[in-house]
């Protein structure tokens, strides 16, 4: 439900259950004006009061000779506003005043970015001290641990070394498998006759290689010198 102050025009959003079915008096937290507001689902009370007010106003206008001795009309006592309703109206008024202030001066709430203090660590100079070899070493500001530069090729050598070891191990395993097949060719042929021709060819090839290697490594026998 929206309430609008008849004097200053301030608007407030309040729950429907705040206003009872018979209506109630509400007070503007901005200017302090109090007025009666009827429930939106039961406007009969407000409609019934309107003709009575119009009749009273017409009677006052048509009365040409009012009695001076008449007592002034007593002002009905003002109803006390519910604290919950007053708090809602006050919060809505504060929010609306902040919005209006922000619309008038949009830069008032902007943070001052240029007032951020500079980092003290960024202004500390870095001093280069000479070493015994004639070069220079870079020192860090006070309170910070020095960093050591590691060679960039260390990470590249590690994969190469691991790849070499992997390949070398694979060659060793393959050689051991070939030796086991050569030494156990007879047993394998008996267990799997279909592989016998292949194993025989493999054994013959290895034997030829052994003969060639033996002839190459063994020293040649010296030939006898010719006699005169």
Explained architecture:
- This protein has 228 residues and is mainly α.
- Among the domains are: 2-61 and 79-104, no CATH class; 160-217, no CATH class.
- It is built from five helices and six strands; from the N terminus they run ββββααββααα.
- Strand 1 (2-4) and strand 2 (11-13) form a beta hairpin.
- Helix 4 runs antiparallel to helix 5.
- Residues 109-123 have low confidence and may be disordered.
- Residues 41-160 are annotated as: Disordered.
- This is Zinc-ribbon domain-containing protein.
> Helical stretch count?
5
Largest sheet: 2 strands, antiparallel
Give the structural class: mainly alpha
Give the N-terminus to C-terminus distance in angstroms.
142 Å
Determine Rg (CA atoms, Å). Answer: 54 Å
Beta strands, count: 6
Q: Would you tell me the overall average pLDDT?
A: 70
Numbering strands along the chain, what is their spatial order in the largest sheet? Answer: 1-2
Low-confidence stretches: 109-123
Task: Tell me the series of helices and strands, N- to C-terminal.
Answer: EEEEHHEEHHH
Q: Could you tell me the strand content as a percent range?
A: 5-15%
Globular, elongated, flat, extended or rod-shaped: what is the shape?
A: rod-shaped
**Helical proportion, percent range:** 40-55%
Relevant terms:
228 residues; mainly alpha; two-stranded antiparallel sheet; two-stranded antiparallel ribbon; 5 helices; rod-shaped
